[in-house]
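As a warm-up, study this chain.
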Amino acid sequence: MDDSELVTAADVQLMQGLAQRVTAVRPDPVNSGASLGEPAWVWGKGHASEGESWLRRPWFSGDVLVAWGWACLPHRVRRSDGSVKDVTSPSLAYHAHPDHSELVEEVIDRYDGATVGIERTVVPSTADEFALERWVAHGYETDPAGLGDTGSWTQFNQRDLEGVERPVLPTDSDSAPLTRPGCRPRSRLTWWRHRTERWRHRRSCGSTRRTGPPNSSWPEHIPTTDGSGWAGRRCCTRCIWRRRPGPGT
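Now compare it with the structure written out below.
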């Protein structure tokens, strides 16, 4: 986007801050590319190989980010088997605060200006009626191939926290053994302490930064901003454990 710059880790943190603020007020118009975790995930897995094709354009109200666009321009991807693939169609992730929805028009103009003469794609939220109208007005059409069970789309589900039962561990949880090939049985509590003492974690709302052991192949994660957008409440946490290769594996 003509006066834009390449996406940086600092940009990702600003994007996450906007996602927190908007989700706390009205989560349904937040498209999949602008959710709290998606910018960090995309950055973490691709900035080293694809970062030169990423352009961003932010919009501020004073010192506060209120909208942004992240364009992925045509580029070449080298796969793990050594082969290469040319990505010829640009794509866009973007986000605009509901109080500044008029900025969607500027996002579209910037995107169109950076991709003249190229077929391009964007995935807005169907709940954002204003944005959909503006994309259609600029000549964008629904891609039938992107719909249905074989398409590429996401679904937003929401559940009120009222009525959710308080989780309670079974009374024998500290003594129930966990077994794994090549390892002696451990209690759940002992196993958890072992893992957390060996590999330290610094947690923040929405993501986990892991300080791995020497020669760890895990990529660096982008930390999220503070939890002020959630009014200090932790609503949901997901932790994915990936087993590190060891002897005999």
